[in-house]
Design goal:
mainly alpha; 4% strand; 3 helices; 96 residues; Histone, subunit A; flat; 2 strands
């Protein structure tokens, strides 16, 4: 097992631009070491006859079929706009 070191945690926190206190760094070393140990324990399992899955439960699409239905006309939609220009909504500029 590759042991997680303080240097590893500092390197990753630097990449993520996260400042860690001394206590947080030591805590992360401990937590990451435990995670790696757990992953190694999982790697011991025999998964030869286990089918790969993306989800533990079957998933089905619950969306309705698309169907054409009447909608608002351009006049009705722009009629409720506080400010409009021809047949378009006019909104404040947000990009200079």
């Amino acid at each position: 097992m590759k042991e997680i070191t303080r240097k590893d945690v500092e390197y990753v926190s630097d990449l993520a631009r996260i400042r860690l206190t001394e206590e947080e760094t030591q805590d992360m070393v401990h937590q990451l070491t435990r995670i790696i140990q757990y992953m190694e324990k999982l790697n011991e399992l025999d998964t030869k006859n286990v089918e790969p899955t993306a989800h533990i439960l079957p998933i089905q699409n619950v969306m309705r079929e698309d169907e054409v239905r009447p909608s608002l006309s351009v006049e009705e939609a722009t009629g409720i706009a506080p400010v409009k220009d021809k047949n378009m909504f006019k909104v404040p500029r947000i990009v200079e």
